[in-house]
Design a protein that fits this description.
Bound molecules: (2R)-2,3-dihydroxypropyl phosphate, manganese (II) ion
Distance between the termini: 76 Å
Radius of gyration: 28 Å
CATH superfamily of the largest domain: Alkaline Phosphatase, subunit A
Largest sheet: 8 strands, mixed
Number of domains: 2
CATH architecture of the largest domain: 3-Layer(aba) Sandwich
Strand order of the largest sheet: 7-6-10-1-11-12-4-13
CATH topology of the largest domain: Alkaline Phosphatase, subunit A
Strand content: 5-15%
Number of strands: 19
Length: 625
């Protein structure tokens, strides 16, 4: 079919609005990506998903008649420009992009010390410059609007074809990222990364999709009977028959330290006759130490650990609570400590938006979140601000806090893949496992151990420990499953079973009391979910909606995991093989009625926890009071 030049000219003019939209939107989104990650920017990585997302929008525009199409593209272009300006300004302060959660929880720039006007720069409005191009184009277009009337059927057909092409290509880009970063798309733990590698439109579409699907899940009604059943279970679960250690924290500060990737196998362990964690070993001797304490995180990883210890509820089965349920009401540790006139804050020297923390901490009612912006980033070790500088600067902050306070500190430097050997400057001889992940990890945790020792010693010297209770624990494993053989070799475990693996999934947990009181070792099988009820008993806080147990007043040693596995201290149930192991002998044992009952109870606990989150039940329970 030969197209004469006149027809070609008409075709190009009639499609000018589409062409301009595609070029300008691609350019703006690419420039935005460069602005949020100048150091690692590679347009080749992001240009395709950006174009695919623009093609989807163009596909939608084809539904409209010509003038309507141009108007749709014009308005869409303005909206994209405004989103880019807002994300640019937000990124300038939070090093993050805006999400629905940020808007919903009002974590905008309101609390920003420097006013928003200081953050907006004239060049930000360059994103709107093309609108001026569009206006003349519109005039030209109206003048030469020679495009033939296109029937609704043809318009629908072109919408379906073009939108489908764009959506399939875009979907493949998103799927590829989900393979490279398995948890990222569902947990959205690093919004900047998604925006950087998929383009800002795709990020916001994914964010909207996640929020909408969570909203739909929560629309499923829950029967009043089920609500009552959960409420009754919760009140029974936290009723104590004894009152050991009750209210011993009255008027005292609470300092809770969550240590990045502190896995228990390093405690009191040596390599080449050197202690790996000499400082923690020393402080464990001055504290009450729980040597059968398990992490219970799921795909929310670090943020799940925080959620467990501050709310005593289970993490989400998939995705991250910190992202999916940041709009819920919680009876969190911070909220209940606030009600006791404590000053509550989180201290973590990393980007405020990572794991949606700045949004979630507002929901948990922390008075303040001292994030990366509140620290002098004078030294980097591992993922960001060094533990040494973070802890030294945090001590200075804490000495100014109104007392009594609850301070929740989260360390960072001992973060996977533990390869900052220069920063760790470790004196540990890890031969013959140097150049392995485990060898690198030992150097990393040896570094963090030294900083924790310095911090605790300084707290002691400052006299702050005379009136503070300190809880320190690890957030999750350090050696991932695909490197477990290194760990078995290090531990000298031959022919490992799932029981060996599970027994290695412990993290240290210590509680230090003034004057080193109550020190010793507690062998009870416990988990992160039990920390909050234990604190609640010590500080006389209400224990209303907790699924964990107060470790000083419970016989219950059941530790339940998100995947349905559990242990009662005698037997370990591994859900993925439906197998029971006797902990003492390591042998596989048959299911008994009691074990069956515990298996069912684990699933009930997980179900209740999911219902509490999906239906925002704490808000309902509080409103009915
Ligand atoms: C970042 C740090 C790491 O803030 O907490 O989180 P993780 O990758 O361990 O979940
Ligand atoms: Mn972590």
């Amino acid at each position: 079919m030969n197209i004469n030049s006149n027809q070609l000219k008409n075709f190009l003019i009639s499609g000018l609005d589409i062409l301009f939209f595609l070029i300008l939107v691609t350019l703006k989104l690419t420039l935005f990506d460069k602005s949020i990650s100048p150091e690692h920017f590679n347009y080749k990585l992001v240009i395709k998903p950006i174009i695919y997302s623009a093609i989807c929008l163009i596909g939608i525009s084809l539904i409209f008649k010509n003038k309507g199409r141009t108007r749709f593209l014009y308005i869409t272009n303005i909206i994209i420009s405004l989103i880019l300006i807002a994300d640019t300004v937000y990124f300038r302060y939070f090093k993050d992009v805006i999400s629905v959660g940020v808007l919903r929880n009002g974590v905008m720039l309101g609390g920003v010390k420097s006013s928003v006007t200081d953050l907006i720069k004239a060049q930000d409005f360059l994103y709107l410059l093309d609108i001026l191009i569009f206006i003349p184009l519109l005039m030209l277009y109206k003048k030469y609007n020679i495009s033939p009337k296109i029937s609704i059927y043809k318009r629908l057909a072109s919408f379906i074809i073009i939108f489908t092409i764009g959506a399939v290509w875009d979907g493949l880009s998103i799927y590829k990222m989900s393979l490279d970063q398995p948890r990222l798309i569902t947990t959205m733990y690093n919004r900047v990364y998604i925006s950087k590698f998929l383009g800002d439109i795709n990020f916001h579409v994914l964010d909207l999709y996640n929020v909408t699907s969570n909203k739909i899940a929560s629309l499923k009604t829950i029967s009043p009977q089920k609500e009552k059943e959960i409420k009754t279970y919760l009140s029974k679960n936290s009723s104590n028959t004894t009152s050991n250690m009750k209210n011993i924290g009255k008027g005292k500060n609470l300092i809770m330290i969550q240590v990045e990737a502190l896995q228990q196998f390093v405690i009191n362990a040596k390599i080449n006759d050197q202690e790996i964690t000499p400082n923690l070993n020393r402080w464990i001797k001055k504290s009450l130490y729980f040597d059968n304490f398990f992490y219970q995180v799921a795909s929310g990883n670090t943020s799940d650990a925080e959620f467990l210890t501050n709310n005593s509820l289970y993490p989400a089965a998939s995705g991250a609570v910190y992202y999916m349920y940041a709009g819920n009401t919680y009876s969190s540790l911070a909220k209940e400590m606030n009600d006791k006139n404590y000053y509550t804050s989180v201290l973590h020297g990393y980007s405020e938006g990572f794991w949606n923390r700045n949004v979630m901490y507002k929901a948990e009612k922390f008075d303040d979140f001292w994030g990366e912006k509140s620290y002098n980033l004078d030294e980097t070790v591992g993922l960001g601000l060094s533990d040494k500088s973070f802890l030294n600067q945090s001590l200075v902050k804490m000495q100014k806090f109104k007392q009594p306070f609850y301070s929740f500190l989260i360390t960072l430097s001992s973060h996977f893949p533990y390869d900052d050997t220069k920063g760790y400057d470790s004196d540990l001889n890890v031969d013959p496992i140097e150049d392995t992940l485990t060898g690198d990890y030992l150097n990393g945790i040896h570094y963090t151990d030294a900083q924790l020792g310095m911090f605790l010693d300084n707290l002691e010297k400052s006299g702050m420990l005379d009136n503070s209770i300190v809880i320190l624990y690890g957030d999750h494993y350090a050696i991932p499953k695909d490197k477990t053989n290194e760990l078995y070799n290090f531990e000298g475990i031959k022919n490992p079973t799932d029981l060996n693996w599970f027994q290695l999934q412990k993290v240290p947990m210590l509680i230090h009391f003034p004057k080193d009181d109550y020190k010793g070792i507690n062998h009870s099988y416990t988990g992160q979910i039990d920390i909050y009820p234990t604190i609640a008993n010590m500080f006389n806080l209400p224990q209303k909606y907790m699924l964990g147990h107060d470790l000083f007043n419970t016989k219950n040693e059941t530790v339940m995991f998100r995947n349905g596995s559990f242990t009662d201290g005698t037997t370990f149930y591994v859900s993925w093989t439906n197998t029971y192991y006797d902990i003492k002998t390591g042998n596989i044992v048959p299911e008994t009625a009691q074990l069956r009952n515990l298996k069912d109870k684990t699933l009930v606990n997980l179900e209740y926890s999911d219902d509490i989150l999906n239906h925002n039940l704490i808000k309902k329970f509080e409103n009915k009071k």
